Amino acid sequence: MSEEESTHRPNLSRRRRENRPAGTKKRRDVWVTVEEEAALVARAELEKVTVPNLLVSSALAQRTESPTERRAVIAELMQLHNLLARSSNNINQLARQANATSEFPVEAREALKHLRSVAMRIDRAIEGLM
């Protein structure tokens, strides 16, 4: 993996939101009951985020999944992408063998073409989630 690729990946284990250049613009106080506070703290610990982060991300999310579910989906897509990369490597090895014997099956070319298109779709999906 190149340096450039590794710098674009977010830290998925981060509890706090990233700092903004202009800093915090508005502060909101939220009054909750003791029971609501306990539920918020428990949910934030479960999601591995702070309570303010949980409240803001939940309120502004256009999707229904939680931050933890979202990270799990991104991690699964990255694992799937790696699997496809390894499969592409295997197909490339078949291509080398075919070059040595001058016989390369058409199915192998189509399989590689398909793997590349799926990998691009996964990349677009990951970018869309981030």
Explain what you see.
It is a single chain. The protein has 130 residues and is mostly helical. The chain folds into 2 domains: 46 residues; 67 residues. The chain is 68% helix and 0% strand. The radius of gyration is 22 Å and the shape is elongated. The N terminus is likely disordered.
> Given the C-alpha coordinates, what overall shape results?
elongated
H-E string: HHHHH
How many distinct domains?
A: 2
Strand content: under 5%
For the largest beta-sheet, the strand count, sense and barrel status come to: none
Structural class: mainly alpha
Give me the number of helical elements: 5
* Helix residue percentage: 55-70%
Q: What Rg is obtained from the alpha carbons, in whole angstroms?
A: 22 Å
- Please state the average pLDDT score: 77
Instruction: Tell me the span between the first and last alpha carbons.
Output: 19 Å
Low-confidence stretches: 1-6
Number of strands: 0
